[in-house]
Structure formats: structure tokens, C-alpha cells
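note to self — DONT lose this again. spent like an hour looking for the file last time. sequence + predicted structure for the chain T wanted, 87 res
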Amino acid sequence: MGPGPRMRQELTPGDIGRRATVRLRLSGGGFRDIVGVLESWQDGLLRLRRRDGNVTEVTAEDVAGSRIVPQRPPTRRRGAERPTTDG
């Protein structure tokens, strides 16, 4: 079996508000992935809000691939997973 699925350039300005992963080409070679909610896409500049609240800006020409990913499930508190029952 071959390597896993490759990223395609599928993110569009119509995906604003959705969670995505973006693979960037680094100037020195190699790649870097960013996961966050696409906040804006204007004049070739993408803004992604990461889970820590920081906003990362990237240029569309540096994007090597992208895709929409599922929203993160809500964090469960310990002990809240099962209701207690009497009897």
C-alpha cells in the first residue's frame, strides 16, 4: 500500500468560518502545517485562528495544500462521562 492521502488545494474563500489544515512551503525547503479556523481570505492573505487564540497570517502563494477538517469535539470533564444511578 502506498503513502496516505496527499493534501490538495481545496480551501477557498467560501470556507471562511470552517476549520482547516494548511500546508505551507518554507523558504528554506520543507513544509509546515497549520490547523485553525479560516477567519478571512483577502487579497491573497489567509488568516487562521488557532486553538490557542492566536491568529496566523499566510499568503496564498505559500500554500502547498489544504483541506477542511472536522471541528474539535467539546472537551469532556473527568467524571462527567457517566451519570450516577441509584440502585
